[in-house]
Structure formats: structure tokens, C-alpha cells
């Protein structure tokens, strides 16, 4: 029995999800801008305004006979600006907090939001990208749907000038295109 989506249905659902995700992104970026004491549109416009990108990745973690010997994903921070994540109800995501790995609860209907590297850079470290990893499960397949919100590749990202001054708060991060940042992170080069 075929119970999945047809390509046409998949397209419709994805387009609608994208619209809602972009609305939520706008709201979160406004609140994060205000949290920095800046105009609500600051972060969005620094990330390319209407050219901001949303990239969906579907993670699939099959059951693992010896879950204590493996990880789903190694510890990392996301290199985008924000990640909006929906897991399938199987626990496994952990965040690094105060020196411990802390399990993230599966709340039905919740969208998990990660602050990524580009928000850390723009805020000059006032917000920090969340270090996270995933475990695998002995019996159950875990899946998660992640949307990475990121600037266009050629967008130049650095600490916001409003947050930087030479004496009190010098820039903690270098300024470069998102493409350059990605290249360095993927190839483990210094930023
Ligand atoms: C990622 C990620 C976590 C998860 O895709 O960057 O961290 O819960 N996924 O699958
Ligand atoms: Ni991640």
C-alpha cells in the first residue's frame, strides 16, 4: 500500500513549511536583535534580508546494536545563523551546558532552535552557538528535519559595528564571506 506523498504533494507541503519557517525566522531574528539592544531588523538585514536562505536536511539514524559505542552526530556547532529542528519523537539530541551533556526533551509539536555560528559572529559573542551532538537508539530509528537559516554564500559577515569599539569591546571574530567561513570550517582551518 502506498501511503507516502506524491512528488506534487511533497512540493506543496514543503513550500508551505518553508513559508512558515521564514515567518518564524523573522520573529526570532527580531527578538534576538532586540536582545542586543538593536533595531528589530538588524540581524535579518545583516544576513541578506530577503535573500536569506533556508536549507532543509533530513537526518536518519537507524537503530544501533551498541549505541554506547557510536554517536549519531559528533559534537559540533551549526555554521549557519539559526537551525530550526523537528525530531520524530525519539530522544537523542544533547546540548553542552555548564560542562555536561544535557538531553533535550522531545516536546510534541515543538520546534527546537539552535543559535548557529553566524549569530555568534554578528553578536560578537554575546550569543554563542550551541554545541550539540546526537546519540543513537538501540531499538528505534531516529529522524529529524532540520532547516538551516543562513546568509547567501557571498554575504560578508562580521561582528556588527554597533557592538564593537576599539577599547571596550574589540571584535572577537574576523569578517569574511559565509562561503569562506564554510570552507574553513569544513576543512578545519582557523577562522
Ligand atoms: C544537524 C544536527 C541534530 C539532530 O543536523 O546539524 O545537529 O537532532 N542534527 O538530528
Ligand atoms: Ni547540528
TrEMBL record:
Keywords: Iron, Metal-binding, Vitamin C. InterPro entries: IPNS-like_FE2OG_OXY, IPNS-like_sf, Oxoglu/Fe-dep_dioxygenase_dom, Plant_2OG-oxidoreductases. This is Fe2OG dioxygenase domain-containing protein. Residues 51-151 form the Fe2OG dioxygenase domain. The keyword Metal-binding applies. GO terms for molecular function: L-ascorbic acid binding; metal ion binding. It comes from Linum tenue.
Amino acid at each position: 500500500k502506498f501511503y507516502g506523498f506524491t512528488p506534487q504533494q511533497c512540493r506543496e507541503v514543503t513550500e508551505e513549511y518553508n513559508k512558515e519557517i521564514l515567518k518564524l525566522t523573522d520573529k526570532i531574528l527580531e527578538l534576538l536583535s532586540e536582545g542586543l539592544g538593536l533595531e528589530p531588523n538588524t540581524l535579518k538585514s545583516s544576513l541578506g534580508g530577503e535573500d536569506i536562505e533556508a536549507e532543509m536536511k533530513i537526518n536518519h539514524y537507524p537503530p544501533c546494536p551498541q549505541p554506547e559505542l557510536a554517536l549519531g552526530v559528533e559534537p559540533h556547532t551549526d555554521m549557519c545563523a539559526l537551525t530550526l529542528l523537528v525530531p520524530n519523537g525519539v530522544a537523542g539530541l544533547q546540548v553542552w551546558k555548564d560542562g555536561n551533556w544535557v538531553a533535550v526533551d522531545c516536546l510534541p509539536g515543538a520546534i527546537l532552535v539552535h543559535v548557529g555560528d553566524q549569530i555568534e559572529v554578528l553578536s560578537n559573542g554575546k550569543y554563542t552557538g550551541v554545541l550539540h551532538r546526537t546519540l543513537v537508539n538501540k531499538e528505534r530509528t531516529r529522524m529529524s528535519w532540520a532547516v538551516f537559516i543562513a546568509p547567501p554564500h557571498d554575504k560578508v559577515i562580521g561582528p556588527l559595528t554597533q557592538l564593537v569599539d576599539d577599547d571596550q569591546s574589540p571584535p572577537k571574530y574576523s569578517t569574511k564571506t559565509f562561503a569562506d567561513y564554510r570552507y574553513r570550517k569544513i576543512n578545519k582551518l582557523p577562522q
